[in-house]
Design a protein that fits this description.
The complex is a heterodimer.
Chain A lengths: L1 H18 L4 E7 L5 H11 L2 E7 L2 H12 L5 E2 L3 H9 L33 E14 L11 H4 L9 E3 L3 H12 L8 H15 L2 E4 L4 H7 L4 E5 H9 L4 E4 L5 E10 L6 H11 L2 H11 L14 H4 L13 E2 L6 H15 L1
Parallel strand pairs in A: 1-2, 1-3, 5-6, 5-7, 9-10
Antiparallel strand pairs in A: 3-9, 4-7, 4-8, 4-9
Chain B lengths: L1 H7 L1 H6 L4 H27 L1 E3 L5 E5 L2 H7 E2 L9 E2 L2 H32 L3 H12 L6 H12 L4 H8 L13 H26 L3 H8 L4 H30 L2 H6 L7 H10 L5 H30 L1
Antiparallel strand pairs in B: 1-2, 3-4
The chains are: A alpha/beta, B mainly alpha.
């Protein structure tokens, strides 16, 4: 028996060795965010073994890298504000001029974003919005207002799921109150704290991982959610509508970054170039139901995406805003408000 | 404990007397690496200065403990008052874990007694049945529990069907759901030690007591329960301790609306706050609390034995 196991192990090692003929690529990615076909295609094209670990929030990614995982992974896919934080923490490598053949494919509006000037460390992956979806069987009134989350009508009270994510809840709350995201005004902060305490009475749960499932199952009638997840919930049979509040909504962009001390830097750059080819990134979009930041994807996209209500804000929609990065003193007040909310 | 076992073994242990240090080395190394080193690290981290967005600065600081015990207001410049937030979170966790332990005991004791009083050949079968759900991952069991308890789930459908209730009970996202989840997660840890104790129990003692006109209640209270007490205490500890630090059940079944100790600590490392020293301090306080509870149990047990 033991001998058999040794032989099997040796055989496995051999196959793995053959697959890794041209080396390896270690990806650190969100859960449920890249179709296996795209990874397979990259592996075949470049003869590179692809290994992927997943995380469930930007903060979890940062925590893991700071706790010593830096040097293990080649690329990761942080959101906009997290790119800025990671660059500030020295966790990102710089992409030198000319290292990416397809850098020109990036759409002009995403070529020089505020969170990564000149795209020194990152390329666009997908972008979309965070707002909320409402079950139309339960409520048929106007949903394009943040009141649905923070001051809901009686029909929806007690049936609301919020994302278990400080950044997204706080940014939405700031839009609701019409105050800056990193406010230092004490009256505004106290009012924000009080407003959240009152709103919490109406909330059933905080959950990010099952944000889509609670809408599909009907456990929640309102769910704070990303646009692509809302589209998937609708496709899975939930009679939900995604809201674009007049007060504004959150816009985010996830980006593929080159990590510091990447063990397979060349393959990481190949992977980035691969994801800048319209056909490949379109396959990601078709799967994740968001929007890419690459030019020329149109011919490869699922036609249904063009009319997908979650990606087409109505004229009444407020402005889409990125989550802002606050300085330490300000952030500590927001952390305290979050703890108060969940104590 | 290791020493007690070795001295009890008389001549056999003498055979290995010289090699004893070497034979115990793997155990000490494992304990050192897996228990002592992490706890020491945690202790040190809890006295360091927090680095913004996770990590520590190697400067001594008491601010993690200060944050735990003193409330300085939203902006950190009010005069310090006693901070009730975290005490409240700890109290809530103790209460939830206590309720789950009690529930496990009430269901687990009769179950264990039932199994231990079957014919020997049947016992294996019943024990096997108790363990079957635990072949499935804890996360999946907790999610399944949520599906059972939901407003439109089988439990509510059944109760509505037989007409006991007219409106579905909202159990999910309440403390009751958390307690049920914890109870279900750790029930075998209650059943198995009690089973072991009842199985060793000499039933002729019950018969003798009955012959001396003891009622069934008296037999249970004065003869059986004292005899199987170590099993009950072991079961309670095994359910209570992991329940206290659990975060799956509170997050999934309780809706994560209120921190429990486990989720509070997780938030310090994985969440936005990124406050490692505070997470370490909260862990140390939890550890101290658990140790105190264990010591009380241990003292009671040694008193009962002497």
């Amino acid at each position: 028996m033991k001998k058999l196991m040794t032989t099997t192990a040796a055989a496995l090692a051999l196959t793995a060795g053959m697959a890794a003929a041209e080396g390896k690529l270690v990806v650190y990615h969100w859960f449920e965010y890249i179709p296996q076909e795209v990874l397979d295609k990259f592996r075949e094209q470049h003869d590179v073994e692809v290994v992927m670990d997943t995380y469930d929030s930007n903060e979890a990614l940062l925590a893991s890298l700071k706790a010593g995982a830096i040097g293990t992974y080649d690329v990761a896919v942080p959101g906009d504000y997290m790119v800025q934080i990671m660059a500030g923490e020295g966790l990102l490598d710089t992409i030198k001029d000319g290292e990416l053949a397809n850098k020109g494919n990036i759409l002009p509006q995403w070529a020089d974003p505020s969170f990564d000037p000149g795209r020194a460390h990152s390329i666009p992956y997908q972008w979309g919005s965070t707002s909320f979806a409402v079950n139309r069987d339960v409520f048929d009134g106007d949903i394009n207002t943040t009141d649905i989350l923070f001051n809901p009508p009686a029909d929806l009270s007690g049936k609301i799921n919020m994302l278990d994510s400080q950044g997204e809840v706080m940014a939405m709350a700031a839009l609701h109150m019409g105050i800056p995201q990193c406010s230092t005004d004490r009256d505004q902060l106290k009012a924000l704290n009080d407003m959240l305490q009152e709103a919490k009475v109406h909330w059933a749960s905080f959950n990010s991982d099952t944000a889509k499932e609670v809408l599909v199952s009907g456990d929640a009638a309102v769910g704070q959610i990303y646009d692509g997840f809302a589209a998937k919930a609708r496709e899975e049979g939930a009679n939900t509508e995604y809201a674009f509040p007049t007060q504004g909504y959150i816009v985010w962009m996830d980006n593929v970054v080159l990590l510091k001390d990447a063990p397979n830097r060349d393959n990481a750059l190949k992977f980035m170039d691969f994801l800048l080819e319209p056909e490949n990134i379109a396959a990601v979009t078709n799967y994740a139901r968001y929007v890419s930041g690459v030019d020329g994807v149109a011919p490869f996209l699922d036609p249904a995406l063009a009319t997908q209500p979650e990606s087409n804000p109505p004229a009444t929609a407020g402005e889409g805003v990125f989550i802002q990065v606050c300085d330490q003193a300000t952030q500590e007040v927001y952390d305290q408000i979050w703890t108060n909310l969940k104590k | 404990m290791a020493g007690g076992a070795a001295t009890g073994g008389s001549s056999t242990s003498d055979t290995y007397a010289e090699a004893r240090t070497w034979l115990l080395l793997p155990a000490w190394v494992t304990l050192g690496i897996l228990v002592l080193a992490p706890v020491t690290m945690m202790l040190i981290y809890s006295f360091l200065t927090k680095e913004f967005r996770g990590g520590v600065i190697w400067e001594f600081s008491l601010s993690a403990y200060d944050q735990f015990f003193f409330d300085r207001g939203l902006f950190g410049d009010d005069p310090p008052r006693i901070e009730w937030t975290y005490i409240q979170i700890f109290w809530r966790s103790i209460w939830q874990a206590g309720a789950a332990t009690l529930l496990s005991l009430v269901i687990g004791f009769p179950t264990a007694y039932f199994i231990a009083t079957r014919a020997p050949a049947q016992r294996t079968f019943w024990l096997f049945l108790v363990t079957i759900p635990y072949w499935v991952n804890l996360l999946i069991r907790t999610v399944s529990m949520k599906f059972l308890l939901r407003d439109q789930g089988p439990l509510n459908e059944a109760l509505l069907g037989i007409g006991i209730i007219s409106e579905p009970l909202s159990i999910v996202n309440t403390n009751v759901a958390v307690q049920l989840g914890l109870f279900y997660s750790y029930l075998p840890f209650m059943v198995l030690p009690i089973y072991a104790a009842v199985e060793r129990y000499n039933f002729t003692l019950s018969e003798a007591a009955a012959d001396l006109y003891a009622s069934r209640w008296t037999v249970l209270r004065r003869i059986l329960l004292p005899s199987v007490k170590p099993g009950i205490i072991a079961g309670c500890i095994l359910v209570f301790v992991p329940s206290m630090g659990s975060f799956l059940a509170p997050d999934l079944l309780g809706g994560a609306k209120n921190f429990m100790i486990g989720s509070l600590i997780e938030e310090q490392f994985k969440g936005n706050a990124g406050n490692w020293p505070f997470g370490a301090a909260a862990s140390m306080i939890l550890l101290t609390l658990v140790l105190i509870i264990l010591l009380i149990f241990a003292r009671q047990q040694s008193k009962a034995e002497s």
